[in-house]
């Protein structure tokens, strides 16, 4: 690719960043890094009524946690700043007026009451009200009014908006990297508002102006913006600017595959839809985050990459660097991608095995107050034995509690299966072997005890099942000899003696 690649992730600070937004940021990041380009973060806060305190910092924190820091944006490498649209407000009015002067836009003075009356009138007739070529000369705007009337309204300070003048009887030929060629009949387009009566631009105008001024080469965004492509393309034409290349990503669908994934789906089915935990500043309601739920950032990123993209191979596990190398927008699907909560757990289980045991031990110790006085090196050894069965750090205690405290009860079904007539005699013989052992290693224990079982033709089940029950309280856990070695001779004998006493 010869052109200088500059892409932008442009969220609105109206609350926590949805997982769909993270996927959009990821695809922008991968594309930028693939082509030695630049990822820009732009905060699109033109709608001040929906602005939420803390949302911008949340977005930045989420990108950093995912390992996708932006190259340019608020407070970072501000070559084309400012990067908050609210701070770029003086720019937009001039561009809106430029469109008026070129005949591509016009002032509209229609009140909300008048427009509402038109809508209701159309509904009563079974029609849909669209403000465009077929009725704009009948409405209150600078196309239907004389120049003197328009000047009088402006001088009087009447509220107005600036609308784009959508052309009549034309066919737009658009190209999308993912969706191919698109044809649009301009007669079905409405005259969108570009500039509002409160002095702020709408998303459409601000978006185009900022993308042009920030030299954006590719616009990679969600499918929900596809209906806006015609207007945005026409705005580039109206200004006489080269348009960037567009790529509209497929929707992320509910686990059922029907409809767009929402927070409600996560709440209903028990999984987060936000990367980080979010506390609503107004209600103090807390929304779960993948980080706080125990997911690794690498697992979430790997999972998100496959929501709409496929490398064309059987490989599923990718580091971020490998994703950069493999990523291609032409391999992104058009159809929606179903969100599978079990699949992201599968990824997390894999990445659990890749984690450093010492760091996992620290996380385990911090997570469970019962381990406050336990040596971190011992916890690390335990983690190495049990993480193979874990998906989250929160799973560790259930998988390893017997390494730290003796069982106080025994699983009923396991007891019936393990404790038979003569078990007490066998267990007492085992105690004698353990007490006589001077080389207390896993290898020696395995050799001596298995040798004793074989020599005496006892049957492994008669020894190993009650032994495991004594150590764990159930017929589960890692290798018995690893457990014996970890808890030590004295504790092992003590636990076997206890189960003998219960017999």
Automatic annotation (TrEMBL):
Residues forming the Aminoacyl-tRNA synthetase class I anticodon-binding domain are 360-499
Motif 'HIGH' region boundaries? 11-21
The segment(s) forming the Glutamyl/glutaminyl-tRNA synthetase class Ib catalytic domain are 4-346
Query: Where along this sequence does the record place binding of ATP?
Result: 263
Question: Which GO MF terms does the UniProt record name?
Answer: ATP binding; glutamate-tRNA ligase activity; tRNA binding; zinc ion binding
What's an example GO BP annotation here?
glutamyl-tRNA aminoacylation
The residue numbers the entry assigns to motif 'KMSKS' region are 260-264
Where does the record place it? Cytoplasm
InterPro entries xref list: aa-tRNA-synth_I_cd-bd, aa-tRNA-synth_I_codon-bd_sub2, aa-tRNA-synth_I_CS, aa_tRNA-synth_I_cd-bd_sf, Glu-tRNA-ligase_bac/mito, Glu/Gln-tRNA-synth, Glu/Gln-tRNA-synth_Ib_cat-dom, GluQ/Sye
Protein keywords: Aminoacyl-tRNA synthetase, ATP-binding, Cytoplasm, Ligase, Nucleotide-binding, Protein biosynthesis
This enzyme catalyses: tRNA(Glu) + L-glutamate + ATP = L-glutamyl-tRNA(Glu) + AMP + diphosphate
Lineage, top-rank taxon, reads Bacteria
Q: Top-level EC class, please?
A: ligase
Similarity-based family: Belongs to the class-I aminoacyl-tRNA synthetase family. Glutamate--tRNA ligase type 1 subfamily.
Please give the NCBIfam families that the UniProt record associates with this protein.
Answer: gltX_bact
The molecule here is called Glutamate--tRNA ligase
Lineage per the UniProt record: Bacteria, Pseudomonadati, Bacteroidota, Flavobacteriia, Flavobacteriales
């Amino acid at each position: 690719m010869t052109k200088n690649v500059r892409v932008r992730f442009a969220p609105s600070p109206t609350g926590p960043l949805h997982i769909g937004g993270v996927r959009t940021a990821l695809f922008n990041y991968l594309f930028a890094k693939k082509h030695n380009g630049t990822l820009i973060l732009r905060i699109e806060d033109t709608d001040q009524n929906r602005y939420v305190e803390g949302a911008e910092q949340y977005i930045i924190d989420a990108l950093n946690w995912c390992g996708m820091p932006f190259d340019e944006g608020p407070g970072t490498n501000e070559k084309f700043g400012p990067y908050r649209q609210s701070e770029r407000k003086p720019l937009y009015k001039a561009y809106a007026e430029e469109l008026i002067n070129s005949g591509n836009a016009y002032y509209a003075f229609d009140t909300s009451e008048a427009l509402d009356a038109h809508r209701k009138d159309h509904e009563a007739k079974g029609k849909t009200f669209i403000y465009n070529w077929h009725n704009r000369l009948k409405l209150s705007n600078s196309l239907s009014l004389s120049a003197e009337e328009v000047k009088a309204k402006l001088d009087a300070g009447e509220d107005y908006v600036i609308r784009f003048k959508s052309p009549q009887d034309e066919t737009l030929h658009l190209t999308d990297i993912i969706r191919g060629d698109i044809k649009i009949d301009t007669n079905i387009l409405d005259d969108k508002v570009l500039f509002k009566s409160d002095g702020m631009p709408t998303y459409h105008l601000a978006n185009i102006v900022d993308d042009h001024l920030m030299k954006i080469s590719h616009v990679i965004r969600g499918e929900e913006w596809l209906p806006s492509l015609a207007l945005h393309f026409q705005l580039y034409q109206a200004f006489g600017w080269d348009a960037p290349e567009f790529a509209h990503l497929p929707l992320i669908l509910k686990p059922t595959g029907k409809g767009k994934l929402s927070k409600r789906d996560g709440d209903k089915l028990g999984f987060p839809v936000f990367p980080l935990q979010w506390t609503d500043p107004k209600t103090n309601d807390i929304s779960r985050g993948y980080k706080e739920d125990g997911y690794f950032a690498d697992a979430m990123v790997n999972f998100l990459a496959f929501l709409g993209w496929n490398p064309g191979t059987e490989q599923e596990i990718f580091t971020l660097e490998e994703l950069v190398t493999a990523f291609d927008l032409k391999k992104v699907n058009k159809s929606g991608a179903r969100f599978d909560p079990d699949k992201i757990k599968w990824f997390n289980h894999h990445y659990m095995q890749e984690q450093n045991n010492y760091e996992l031990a620290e996380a385990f110790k911090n997570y469970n107050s019962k381990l406050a006085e336990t040596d971190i090196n011992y916890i690390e050894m335990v983690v190495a034995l049990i993480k193979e069965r874990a998906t989250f750090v929160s799973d560790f205690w259930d998988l390893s509690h017997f390494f730290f405290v003796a069982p106080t009860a025994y699983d009923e079904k396991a007891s019936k299966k393990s404790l038979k007539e003569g078990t007490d005699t066998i267990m007492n013989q085992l105690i004698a072997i353990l007490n006589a052992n001077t080389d207390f290693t896993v290898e020696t224990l395995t050799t001596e005890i298995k040798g004793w079982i074989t020599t005496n033709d006892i049957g492994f089940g008669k020894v190993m099942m009650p032994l495991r029950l004594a150590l764990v309280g159930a017929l589960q856990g890692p290798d018995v000899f690893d457990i014996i070695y970890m808890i030590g001779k004295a504790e092992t004998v003590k636990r076997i003696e206890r189960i003998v006493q219960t017999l």
